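Please predict the structure of the following assembly.
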Amino acid sequence: MVDPKIYKFVLAGLEKTFNTAPSYYDKKVADSVGNQILNQSSFYPYFIHLFESDNNSGYWKDRISNTFNNELDKEDGLRPSDFWVEKFVSYSSPEYIKRYGLSFINGNCPWIDLGIKLNDNLKTFEVFEAIYSIVLERGWTDNRYKNILNRLVEESPLSLKLFVESNLFKSGKFGRPKPAVRGSLYAEYIKAGFLTKKTARKIRSDSSSEASLAGVQALIASEKAYDSYEDLLLCFTDSRHEYVVAELASNLPLYLISSLLGTEFSYAKSIIERRMTDGV
Amino acid sequence: MIETNVVNLVESLSEAGADDNILYKLATIGINSAFNSYRADREQLMQEFGELPKNIVFEMWDDLDSKIKVIYVDQNVASFKEWLKNG
């Protein structure tokens, strides 16, 4: 056992390593010592002390969760022990996310990100709804929203189908989102294989060029998911958005391109002309 | 954090089997960062560091900031001069 005379310095070292703003010195020295310690159960009393004294004023949650988030991205990175999994998973409950979701969506609270990654029994739909309600107010999307949307599609595609159909194609629980958000939902809905002629026409008629284009691009990227792919594409040919028609002009099979010949959009016309001349 | 809590907390780490080398490394990080900080008890910490037994400082020496090494020598100048005198 070490001499008790150094206890005070040990604690100062722990605080420097885990509970202060990161600095150049940390990158050189403290971070490597920190990584050695994180999963050692003999240091858990210190980490328990951090959790117990949690008043959201320290740096420790940021530093430790950022460390694990970075390590999880590495193939052979440090994996959190069960101790950490249990601690961080508690930050991924829908209730916690409702409370701190705005800060999370604004790029803070990396511990929520870590909790979501580590939680094998995440209440994905409730968490998605909590984040969606914030994105709805803000009007634009970001990676954290996209990550939870992707996870929802992966784990429960039918929930996404019902959500899109009841909130975008009808007036549901949530108000009408901004174009970027509508576009992201259309894209996932289409990639998951749920598009029908009826819903294709609804996306075609979306008042936003951005949202409608996201739908067409997703359909073009999901050709194999649909037996009636060409019929679905043709639902978009009378779109009133130039970008949508131009996208179709570039991607429709040549034998269907005649369906766009009546278009008034000059850019789309030039693409059609070039493709018909080149025969591709 | 009050003094008794510091002692209890670090003692519990030591009792839980924390590796002595890691504890010395942490202590070194602690003193190095205290020296470069504006913390209120900086002077007191440096004073206490100067009073640490040589065998403890020996464990930390390689990773100490060179300015702190000078401070330690200054605070233990009699021993240092004795060592010089004896060649």
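The mean pLDDT of chain A is 92. Residues 1-88 of chain A form one domain.
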